[in-house]
Amino acid sequence: MSYCAYVNNNISELPDFLLNKEYHDNHYGFPIVDDDELFGRLLLEINQAGLSWTLMLRKQHSFRAAYDHFSIEKVAAYNESDRERLMQDPGIVRNRLKINAAIVNAQKILEIRKDFGSFKGWIEANHPLTKEQWIKLFKKTFKFTGGEIVNEFLMSTGYLPGAHTPDCPIYQKINQLAS
Q1: Does a structural domain hold residue 169?
Q2: Which residues contact 131 (CB under 8 A, 6 or more apart)?
Q3: Active-site entry in 6, 53, 134, 159
Q4: Domain ranges, residue 118
Q5: Is 134 an annotated catalytic residue?
Q6: Residue 18: which pLDDT band, with cuts at 50, 70 and 90?
Q7: pLDDT for the residue 19
Q8: What is the CATH number of the domain that holds 50?
Q9: Within a domain: residue 142?
Q10: What is the C-alpha to C-alpha distance for residues 60 and 145, in angstroms, rounded to an integer?
Q11: What is the pLDDT of residues 108-159, one digit of tens each?
Q12: How far, in Å, CA of 96 to CA of 84, rounded?
């Protein structure tokens, strides 16, 4: 069975390979319907900047716990004591800019919901755009959303192509889901 370079490039250690393969086979490129889960993916992509995705996969449960299961409403209401709590949490990436981006982005999503009903609704209302147009829109709307972050977020949630190669069995699985 042929897999994408994503899995093959992360084969150095068996636990990491299995972690990456599970993500590749069951999450990467698959649509996400739930707004909190979409927000969680964006939060992880932002935190991955400058680090490895394998590290994010290892820490994803800690992120979920630290950020109230990615509840947009709860994260949007975080205050300075929540920022300090997150800065002290060894289970997540303790970067003040990334922590602040999570809070500000949750607040932005609440604003988006007023006009589009949901974060997903906002993405759908703008779809399809080119990668460059998406990057411009995300940079205008959210904090800490550079080109690679936006590209990976949209590819990992099925809005941009390229998550899987046509010879990958997961490519076929995602196409069947879209039909």
Answers
A1: no
A2: 147, 150, 151, 154, 160
A3: 53
A4: 29-163
A5: no
A6: confident
A7: 86
A8: 1.10.340.30
A9: yes
A10: 19
A11: 999 999 999 999 999 999 999 999 999 999 999 999 999 999 999 999 999 9
A12: 9
